[in-house]
Design goal:
Chain lengths: ~280, ~290
């Protein structure tokens, strides 16, 4: 079959399915939910099929763009290697994430009572978010060595300020009325913090945690571009690009994408459990 | 909270940071300095010698602020801007890739957001993927893009700009979709009672309403474009640029050079964000926004 014709046919079938599903999806009820899930999935499947067809049909060289099937094949055949990379990167990622978010949270609590420090520190938080912090990676490699602690250090620096800014914003989220109520109960500062202000700040804290989940993965991977023991996702990407094993690079990227989505998804799930009272979740039921 | 007292607070924190930095530099460089004195068979050094030594090493673990300032001064003001040792030279290369990438990325983002807002099918099929892709470390693709474009004989500024573009493309798309949807149903209904066409609704209501969102996402996007350009220069270091300078510094242990390049990148990022902020303000004035 003519490759141009086949490509167009796949697009027509896929897009037709997307539009068709949209048309038969009911406006509300269980059917609406299934339809809303199915449309993007169908669209993604169409894109994958197109990718496969273009690469195979037009004979695109492997070193420019490997077909999805060969990426999946590579992914399955090199699972042990990718697993080792994942564990190496995850060590730096998790250690840095916990330390960075923890430190941001604690500092936000500490400066909570001091408007002076808040005014002094928070502008830095907004400023730092625009900086190319990943550039600090070579310095951290010099200080903490090639192994995962240096990656954790980069992640700590990347995640600290978003957490600080979000926690600080969250601590002032409790309304005037609720605070007055706490006062009429005769609650002291600590009780107000624990029973009112911290719970009220949870949506903001989770926002910081979610932003940081993405940032931390970026930090951990880019830091590995600067030197690492011979394992890790950033290292794998960098070396396999040099050796023109583009399918291995894509396999690593698939692992990184799954890691990022899973990390984000887990935090979003916890958020939904913990802040079930928030209006953004209540509305749906 | 007056601006003046905020400034005092910021300056206090900055001063504290400098003090911590100096103390940190003394302690982090102490071991190296001790062994330097030992190698020079100098056992008679005083504490003052030790401290002043730690703050003036050639390759310190943590350079003192004044060393970085001296390096910045040397490589910005006292080196010809077209020399490879000049940070102006490298910053210009990075800036070119950043701005070109930002222009491409935001144009693409705005275009796509207009399509998404007007085509329900694209909204339902593509938008979830764009949102989901935010959780993916897309920067990991950077080295591969350089190699792929190299296969097509595309070299020079373009691969770097492409990476900068696709990092800045996502925030603009997501922000603009939100912005173009921000008019509330009442205002949309009003346009309908005026029997405005889709184009009129777009230019007279949706687009003006989206401007604050546009600039908010521009700020994120231009910072992301710079990060993309710097990371691209790490993988493609032969053309120079601040990322290449970082990499060269880390190869040869030139810590002062790394810090100087890092601070330059930070200032470029800050200046770009400030410029976007100024544009936002003057656009707001043109549109009659009250401060």
């Amino acid at each position: 079959m003519n490759p141009i014709f086949a490509t167009l046919a796949i697009w027509a079938i896929g897009w037709g399915a997307v539009v068709g599903v949209m048309r038969i999806t009911p406006k509300r009820g269980a059917g609406a939910k299934i339809g809303q899930m199915a449309v993007p999935l169908l669209f993604g499947a169409t894109l994958l099929a197109l990718w496969q067809q273009i690469v195979v049909g037009f004979g695109v060289p492997q070193i420019i763009l490997p077909a999805p099937t060969s990426i999946i094949h590579k992914l399955i055949t090199s699972l042990p290697l990718l697993g080792a990379d994942f564990i190496q990167t995850a060590k730096g990622l998790l250690a840095g994430y916990v330390l960075g978010c923890g430190a941001g949270f604690i500092v936000a609590l500490l400066i909570d009572r001091s408007p002076f420090l808040q005014r002094g520190l928070l502008p830095f938080g907004n400023f730092v978010s625009a900086l190319p912090i990943v550039g600090i990676a070579p310095i951290m490699v010099m200080w903490f060595g090639f192994d995962w602690p240096s990656k954790a250090a980069v992640v700590v620096i990347m995640t600290f300020f978003p957490m600080l800014v979000n926690t600080n914003a969250g601590l002032s989220a409790a309304g005037r009325m609720e605070r007055d109520l706490m006062k009429t109960y005769g609650a002291n500062e600590a009780q107000t913090l624990l029973k009112l202000r911290l719970p009220a700040s949870l949506p903001f804290i989770f926002n910081g945690l979610k932003i940081n989940a993405t940032l931390a993965l970026i930090g951990a991977i880019v830091a590995e571009f600067f030197g690492t023991p011979i394992v890790g996702m950033g290292f794998r990407i960098n070396t396999e690009v040099g050796r023109m094993n583009i399918d291995m690079v894509w396999a690593t990227i698939v692992v990184a994408a799954l890691t990022g989505s899973a990390f984000y998804g887990i935090i979003a799930l916890i958020e939904r459990r913990v802040t079930f009272w928030h209006s953004s979740y209540r509305q749906r039921n | 909270m007056t601006p003046k007292s905020s400034l005092v607070a910021i300056l206090t924190v900055l001063a504290a940071l400098l003090v911590i930095w100096y103390v940190g530099a003394v302690f982090m460089n102490m071991d190296l300095q001790r062994s330097l004195f030992q190698n020079a068979n100098n056992d008679q050094y005083s504490t003052a010698d030790l401290i002043s030594g730690t703050l003036n090493q050639e390759r310190p673990r943590l350079p003192a602020p004044h060393q970085i300032v001296a390096e910045l001064n040397k490589s910005i003001l006292h080196t010809a801007p077209d020399s490879k040792r000049s940070l102006v030279y490298h910053a210009t290369i990075t800036l070119e890739a950043t701005l070109l990438g930002f222009a491409i990325g935001s144009a693409l983002g705005v275009f796509l957001s207009v399509l998404i807002v007007h085509l329900k099918s694209l909204d339902q099929s593509l938008m979830p993927w764009i949102v989901a892709s935010q959780t993916i470390p897309i920067i990991a693709l950077a080295p591969m893009i350089v190699v792929i474009l190299n296969q097509f004989d595309i070299t020079g500024i373009v691969p770097k700009a492409v990476i900068a573009a696709y990092l800045s493309f996502f925030p603009v798309t997501v922000g603009m979709v939100k912005g173009l949807r921000s008019p509330d149903p009442l205002q949309m209904d009003l346009m309908r009672t005026y029997s405005a066409s889709q184009w009129q609704t777009f230019f007279k209501l949706r687009l003006p309403a989206s401007v604050p969102f546009l600039f908010a996402s521009f700020k994120v996007a231009i910072a992301a474009a710079l990060i993309g350009a710097v990371v691209a220069e790490i993988t493609k270091s032969e053309d120079g640029g601040l990322g290449a300078r970082l990499l060269a510094g880390s190869y040869y242990g030139q810590t002062i050079q790394i810090w100087a390049a890092l601070l330059t990148a930070a200032s470029v990022a800050a200046v770009l964000v400030i410029i976007v902020g100024l544009l936002e303000r003057s656009t707001g004035k043109l549109m009659g926004a009250r401060p």
